[in-house]
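Structure ticket #2291
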Amino acid sequence: MTPPAIETHELTRRFGPQVAVDRLTLAIAPGEVFGLLGPNGSGKTTTIRMLCGLLEPSAGWALVAGIDVAAAPEQIKRRIGYMSQRFGLYEDLTAAENLDFYAGIYGLNGAARTTRIAAVVDFIGLRGRLGQLVAELSGGWKQRLALACAFLHEPPVLFLDEPTAGVDPAARRNFWRAIHALADGGTTIVITTHYMDEAERCGRLAMLSGGRLIAMGAPHEVAAQVGGQTLEDAFILLQERDER
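Resolution: structure written out below.
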C-alpha cells in the first residue's frame, strides 16, 4: 500500500491562548488535488505553514513526503514547492531572470538547469513572456510564472495558498489546467481557495472552522456534511455560524 504524501495526527498550533489549528488529522494521497476550505481565520494558512516547515506545531505531528515537519523542517523545504498569497517574485527582473534565479536557489546547474527551465517554460506556456519585466505582466501571467518557479525543482508536494486571488476567470481556468496536469504526473497538490468553483475542482476537500476540521470528502460530500445542497450553500452556512 502506497503511504500518504501528507499525513497529520492531531496537529495543533497555538498562539498564546488562541488555538489557530486544533487537533487536525488528515491523510492525503500522492497525486491528489486536495483543497483546504474555510472562512478567514479558520486555520488554512497556519496549517500550510506548519506543513511547509515554516511554523513549528504546538502539539501533534505531521509527515510530508515521509519527513517529520518538526524534526527536519529544512529537509521539508527541499521536498516541496510553496506559492504564498503574497506575490513573491522579483518585479524588476524579467520572467527568464526569475526562473534562472529560482533554479539556482534549488541547486539546478549546468545543462540540467537549462533543460529543466525549458521544460517548465513549455509546460506553463511562458515562451512569449520570457523577456518581459515581471512588473509589466498581467496578474494571470504573474501567477503562472510563480507556479513555474514553485515546481522548477520537481517537488513531490506543492502547496498553493490562495494562488488565484485577484486573477480574472480565464487566467484561473488556465492555472487550474496546469494544476491538474501536474497532479496527473504524480505531484500532490494542496490548495486553499475562497472560490467555490475552484473548490469543486479538487478531488477532496477539508473544511475548517475555528481551526477545527468539520467536514472532509469529495466536494458534494462536504456540502452535505455541513448541511448545504452545494458547496456555496455550505460555505454561507458556515460563515453564518461563525458570526453568531
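Closing remark: Strands lie at 6-15, 18-28, 33-37, 59-64, 67-68, 80-83, 157-161, 188-192, 204-209, 212-217.
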